[in-house]
Automatic annotation (TrEMBL):
It comes from Panacibacter ginsenosidivorans. Residues 189-254 form the HTH luxR-type domain. One of its GO terms (biological process) is regulation of DNA-templated transcription. Keywords: DNA-binding, Transcription, Transcription regulation. Signal peptide: none annotated. Pfam families: GerE (PF00196), PAS_3 (PF08447). This is HTH luxR-type domain-containing protein. The lineage of its organism: Bacteria, Pseudomonadati, Bacteroidota, Chitinophagia, Chitinophagales. One of its GO terms (molecular function) is DNA binding.
Length: 256
């Protein structure tokens, strides 16, 4: 996803989450209560924060962010999401953002605080490595129209649990509300699968199944040289260096 496209859609998406008409009052919940709420979320290497949707800034960031990502709490700003997000996760992040907007827009006022949002994306740590963070968030304050004022978020490092794969979004219902797990993310910003011809998709499908060029040529009744040409063309179109990358991204992004 092109950086300018991501910046544009990121800002466009978050205009919905910004509450410019209502300003939250003094922070009513004590930090001790946040710590109690923390126990509701997945344990592990985590840090928590309170996002103010009026100022699009953080009212509080726990000091444990330095242990998890290497950044001081003062470095964890709203722009952090934009700057440190893994480039391959940017289109997914935009997609899940719009899906969250769609979901919250359908909820009645009394149900807004009965759902926990959960998704995973990768952030660049201070040492340059990427960590897959599981975000879990709940609304802790909203105005009379349903627009958000504050949300409590917990980021947990789950790199050891999930090495590969696309981000996954879920809405976890509380107080008897139904849950919606692994929401299908349809996104026009994902890399287009239409870049490939029908024949290239056939070759790619067989590559994903683990077939060699010679086997593919026999199955499709074409020469091995033609199969290799299709492979090279797909690598060129996606600017990849080898077939392993092609297969991995095809699985991750659903190119067939």
């Amino acid at each position: 996803m092109k950086p300018k496209t991501f910046d544009k859609e990121f800002n466009k998406m978050f205009t919905w989450f910004t509450n410019e008409t209502s300003e939250p009052g003094l922070l009513k919940l004590e930090l001790d209560l946040y710590k109690k709420l923390w126990s509701f979320f997945l344990a592990g290497d985590s840090y928590y924060f309170v996002l103010n949707h009026h100022s699009l800034d953080f009212d509080f960031v726990s000091s444990s962010v330095e242990n998890v990502l290497g950044y001081a709490p003062t470095e964890f700003t709203f722009e952090f999401i934009n700057e440190k997000l893994h480039p391959d996760d940017q289109p997914w992040f935009v997609s899940l953002g719009y899906k969250v907007i769609e979901f919250l827009s359908l909820l009645s006022l009394e149900k807004l605080m009965k759902y926990k949002l959960r998704y995973d994306v990768r952030y660049r740590k201070k040492n340059g490595e990427y960590a897959r963070m599981l975000y879990q968030g709940v609304i802790i304050e909203h105005d009379e129209t349903g627009r958000l004022l504050r949300t409590l978020g917990i980021n947990t490092d789950i790199t050891y649990l999930k090495k590969e794969g696309k981000p996954v979004l879920s809405f976890i219902g509380m107080d008897g509300e139904p849950s919606y797990i692994n929401i299908d993310l349809q996104n026009t910003f994902l890399e287009s699968r239409e870049d490939f011809t029908a024949r290239e998709k056939e070759v790619l499908k067989l590559l994903i199944e683990g077939k060699l060029s010679k086997q593919i040529s026999s199955i499709l009744n074409i020469s091995k040289q033609t199969v290799d040409t299709h492979r090279k063309n797909m690598l060129h179109k996606k600017k990849l260096s080898n077939t392993g990358e092609l297969v991995g991204k095809a699985i991750m992004y659903g190119w067939i």
